Amino acid sequence: MSFAPGKLFLLGEYAVLHGGIALVTAVDRGIRAELRSDRDGYRVAGADLDQKLPIRVLDHGDRAELLQRLSVDVSAFFEGKTKLGLGSSAASSVAILKAARPELSAAEVFRIADRAHREHQAGRGSGADVAASAFGGTISYRLSVRWAQHPWIGTPPQETQVEPLKLPADLRFVAVWMGDAASSTELSGKVAKLVLHEDVRATLSSIASTASYGVGACVNDDAQSLMDALSSGDALMERLGEQTGAPIICEGHRALREFAAEFGLVAKPSGAGGGDFSIVAGPKHSRWLRFCADLADLGLRAIPLEFGYSPDSESEEHSP
Fold this sequence. Notes:
Ribosomal Protein S5, domain 2, Alpha-Beta Plaits, lipid metabolism, four-stranded antiparallel β-sheet, transferase, Ribosomal_Su5_D2-typ_SF, cytoplasm
């Protein structure tokens, strides 16, 4: 049985679609898939996942025969009936491909799964979620000229770039569920409509620069610099929402931001924002137990997730 982790964006949202760098981390909730010995039909546990995505991913051999043997478990991406924004379709693409072709390297899995996922999404998205699922850990990610959307910020590379990183050792991260599954497509669409406006482009450029600074903080194991980058990224996403009319920052996040500051922590939306996940970061010695316990007073809750998770280092409790 294969496993593909979900993801959370830390920095670089929106700007990554235009050639900027993104900082993305894999988490220990993921999708499992296997090819059974029987041919009793395609099975999905946890939620609906229609056959269109698996058919695109199963790009070799007898697709019909493989589909009849395929089982996919997406239940880890749900809390009750609530779908968590951890990149379920991207992780499903990776898990299905790894189950069907276990001999592939992570780079080969990413290349094939990214192509299939893009076709399934009608060309939308950056592919950073697929990369996080394929490689695991924490990565910096930058689109190639082929995929970056116009107008570009700077000059994107000829090939998509994925570099492994480690989060600063002294930082702890907590994922806070805002309570509302956001539509990344809708939010990105609002930004895209105004991307030619000079003020919007300037904000996207600043988001890209902040992400680059955050990547440098990871390289240098600099916890304070990464916290500074996250704080700046939060403010820039607020500005981008104001400029485009996209509800990137919800009221719940604003309350979380103020509450986190009381503990010396920083908060920032993850991904497109809009009420999905926010991340909170701070020194490991902070009053985390009290912080997490008091989140309920805001109507929020922390979702236990391991940041920087790598399937290669799965412990027995995560093994199939």
